[in-house]
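Teaching assistant here, posting this on the class forum so everyone can see the example we discussed in section. The complex has two components, and the goal was to see what a joint structure prediction looks like when all of them are supplied at once.
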Amino acid sequence: MVDVVPPAGDGVGSLAGPGLTVAMHMSDGLVNAPTAAAFGLVAVLGLAIAASRARADLDERTAPMAGLVTAFVFAVQMINFPILPGASGHLLGGALVAILVGPWVGSLCIAIVLVVQALLFADGGLTALGTNITNMALVGVFTGYGVAYALRRVAARSRRGLVATAFVAALVNTVVAALAFVVEYAIGGSGGAALGTVLGLMVGLHVLVGIGEGIITAATVAAVAATRPDLVYLLRGIRPAVGQGLTDEGVAR
Amino acid sequence: MTRSRFLLGFLLVALVIAGGLSYLASSDPDGLDSVTLNGCTVSETAEGERLDGTCIAQNAAARYPSGHQMAGSPLADYAVAGREGTTGLAGILGVLVTALVAGLLFRVLRLPDGRRPGGVPGTRGKG
């Protein structure tokens, strides 16, 4: 079990203080400076590739959608849900954005959320931006997309298939993003816990977080698909076998 | 549903989540924080939080004793000017700023229609 006595705060805002705040992402100093810098480079290169590839996925219809998906992820990330006594989790959003706007645009969505959170909300260390972007905007998004893409026939078949695909992709993206932190800790962690302990706890806790992530992702994707299936990236180019309330403006291709 | 109405609805849902539902959020440490705090007990002191024991967060805090560089931001820790009970307002501002930043970036990145490479999914369609 996690031996944590939660501070006697009564809300996110009351937890401010020097040294440590209860934040949602990696803080400064969890890995050493060279590791932080190396993953900063990974993040910059990854986002540069994503930005160049994203252009082809952005048009006058999808660009506003991508902007709102980004704002939606910011909002939902504020909602920490309980996973165990004394521990919570929140959406990372990798599979969600990948399914709705595609992996290239989706990486940029998550990166924007992380930058806004770090700069405006003091959430997630500035020197940890590289690791946070790598874990959630690159590893999380592309893992979620990979799983969703592999299951895309299932997703297009029925509403239940789409919900199952979104759930599984989100669960896997959460656990793999958590594993990315373990890799970073193994490379240049600041110490304080054995690697095996970190691995076990990260995976165990993020399976639980991933169930919550899966539920939120499935509900959101299902809601978008029910109203505007043409705005679901994963479903584009796949003709659903059974129309689930598809209008003539849905899946137009 | 028209596209603009759908997008407006999407924005409203985000605003309600950040502005209202955020008050119901758990303030327990999240999965990652639980791991970095594992082995320590956290106690609230006048100077902030104190960690006793051995844990990752202790070493991280020792590297950055002055805390987050942006702790002085008017929206730091999801509160407006550090005032309690302003999480919802901070969240609403966050949603609007995020939508603005992302909207502008994606607008800039968007290719003009004439220069769109062929065969790209989702380039046609109305609404």
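For the discussion questions: The CA atoms of residues 146 and 169 of chain A lie 8 Å apart. Chain A touches chain B through 105 residues (CB under 8 Å). Think about how each of these relates to the inputs above.
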